[in-house]
Amino acid sequence: MIRFAPLLMLVLLSSCGRKEDVPEGILKPAKMQDLFWDFTRAEVYSSYFAKRDSLRSEAIENLQLQEKIFKLHHVTKDEFYKSYIYYSNHKDLMTKMIDSILARKKREKEKKQPLQKEIKKI
Description:
single chain; mainly alpha
């Protein structure tokens, strides 16, 4: 039994570490964050502006924006949706990804605020 203790420790340590690793074929968290942010913005844009323009179809506008986003990030639609399903099924990763996006956007907003205050003074 004592001979198996180091092996058992190695197995336990390897299973606890590197929880951010995702399987092959799934977008890494940093890339998925950027893609998911742009994807969400495209959905909001298309639903908001297409509803106000009777000549635009919300669904078509959204699909066109999605294609542009996939090209921008060098990702296929299938890669994105496969990754999205994976992250959706792993709530801890999805929560961490969304929290990271929100934190980054908050930091960006805070960086802009001092500049905007200086502009108002002028």
